[in-house]
Amino acid sequence: MKTGKKKKKTLRPGWDEYFLNIAKAVSARATCMRRKYGAVITKNNIIVSTGYNGAAAGTKDCLAVGKCTRKELQIPHGQRYELCHSVHAEANAIIRASVDELEGSTIYISGADSDAGECHSEPCMMCKRMILNARILKVVYSDGNGKYHVVKPAQWLKGRI
Q: What is the mean pLDDT of residues 37-47?
């Protein structure tokens, strides 16, 4: 895993920083009361899909209902996803792209806590499996401290096979 470092200010951001900033903007559409995530999928530095976390199509989201079951039950982040009505940002971005657009692409993920600002945005195991299945070759996610990580999804399998 490579960590993106803040370099000397230039007139233009690099591609990873640029697309992470777009993912952050996409997260503003999220309907989760706890965390807002945005995802951007690119191929050859062209955006092919975006997604944010929110309720499944045709269902009411937590903001509309005015409550979050996982928050009410004080369930920690990353646990008991079956109680959540939201679809993850990564999943929403993947289902909106074609197979050809996904193969060999890069996904950028940025998230923020409702009360603490930018957060660590590494994909969960469920999303990692979808990313691998979609044949996405590179994942870039914010670390919650103003930097980012660059990962090749095939590395997730090391030590397992």
A: 97
